[in-house]
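chain below, 676 aa
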Amino acid sequence: MAEILSPCGSPEALTAAIGCGCDAVYIGSKAFSARQNAKNFSDEELKEAVKECHRNGVLVYQAINTLVFDSQLDEVAKELKAACEIGIDGIIVQDLGVIELAKKLCPSLPLHASTQMSIHTKNGILLCRDMGLKRVVVSRELSIDTIRELCRQDVEIEAFVHGALCMSVSGQCYMSALIGQRSANRGLCAQACRLPFSAIKGQDRYDLSLKDMSHIKSAGELVKAGVSSLKIEGRMKRSEYVAAATNSLYSELCSKEYDDSLLRAVFSRSGFTDGYLYGRLGRDMFGIREKEDVTSAKDALPKLHELYRRPHKRFSLSFEIKIHKDVPVTLTAKSSDGITATVTASEPQIAQSRDITPEIIEKQLSKLGSTQYEFAKAECEIENGLTLPASVLNELRRLVCEELDKKRVESYEGRYQCSNYIAEKPQRRSKRKTAIRLNLSFASQLSGLDLEGVELVSLPISEVKKLSDIPPYICASLPRFDFNEQETKSTLSELCERGLAHVLVTNLSQIETAKGMGLSMHGDFGLNVTNSLSAKMLSELSLCDITASFELTAKQLGSVSSPIPLGFIGYGKLPSMLTVNCPLKQAVGCKNCKGVLSDKTGRSFEVKCSKKYVEILNSEPLYLADKLSDFDSMDFVTLMFHKESPQEINKVIGKYKSRSPAEGKITRGLYYRGII
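prediction:
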């Protein structure tokens, strides 16, 4: 049976998860967790949580799944070592630098690719396997057929079955950071998608707010597909939510009856959706938290407390007791998970009225109500004429259960050996000439462009196909979310034969896709490079250069040591969100699409359509032409264009060459503000 993986954002939630039948939990400490707004666990609480879970045979995965800066790598190293020392069963990771650090420090510590890594294809799974990851948490946007295909690879697949749905593909949302400096990639998402955004100007709508997902009724189908772990989202939710979701999933898998109305009552946004799993995208997937949702949650709390008031029976016990004259009584218990313990008591008494019987012994040994054990059988070896007080039997039962618990906890200890690896301190980058690169949206934008001094021009691979000739400076940009990886690879191969020399890798999976074609692979911003170790890893994965995350400040960019050229995004409306569920299509339909969303302040956000997915662009263009001296340690700057004409593009290129001051409304992005 697949693992039931429950969220625990607090010690109270941990109690609920264990009490309702989870097989594993995922938790975070006070730092480097993608849910920094959860209560989370102090170092001491984390240590005790691991002991309590292991006592119950429950695995513990620690989330260290945020992007980290070079200045934080030493702290991350301490976090990883501490995880090994307390016996964490696996680390959930996003940052390539953290993966590198973990492999150097604790080679045997299992690593799980967070959904924040945006892995959604076969080649992405294979890359994770080759990087030494044991498990991949796949994107929430996948259908059951895609999940089934991914499960055929030699890596454990973890899939979400219940909880909140982000509008954006995880790991590719920058809206919260761009609007309010609270980065989703750093665990501080402000849930901008839950705010009013309208596809119809002047109307108060929530066109970026999705209902919560619930695939619990489809859990059996996911298990048949090969999913190893069924994940419940919700580390920021209260313990009653954790209880309801865990109990429902446990009951579904065990074919037990359960009250699914409690699940809806404890938290929902106008109901649930399974739209992604079964390809039913559209208006029915969208919803907000109504007043009725809040009221029903309050009413459900008393029933939910009952779900974990008593311990969950996890292990059956087989007892063997030996009672002989003038010999200490021995009680041996063997748990169904293979743990065995033996305890002794004083010598038995001579029976004055009646002998002790197997029935009396079974009655006392079966009183396991306050433990995670249930009685299976008792084998009794009893010499005639002896008796034993019930109090002694009760004490033996208590002691043997404690000894089983102790041995079980000990069985998880000492599994990892840590090295004394220390990451090299990054060196401040030296000044150099910064080349100009372009990222265009349409092949037609090439017409009439003055490309003197331009090093590289990226176009979507679908647009490169339209070119009659492929100049040496053209770079094919691969889809940021790929629904047909094989088709992409086939197209790329055809373009190689026509002379294509460069490819822009927008997702980690594409490294595997483009490998072996003789192309120069350039890493885009979506690879989320924020530290020197990430740059090193991508270099080792054969990338020839990388574009750093635009969530770094100008100062931080200058501190990233990279063995390959490093660039930055310097112009354009930054992609604040990547989504496969078009907010405009569900609201007004493609025929009536104006290509724009507006927020409650009246700001307009262009929606860039790539047919299979859309990007919601920031409201104002990034402009840094007059600030390029602050980026003089960078190898290249990329200017991004959406609907601009060739004349407008030429004008912008000219401004960057002359470093002209800005005109009109612009933003400096996060390069000077930074993220919290």
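The domain at 3-165+211-259 is CATH 3.20.20.380 (TIM Barrel). The chain has 21 helices and 30 strands.
thats it, cya
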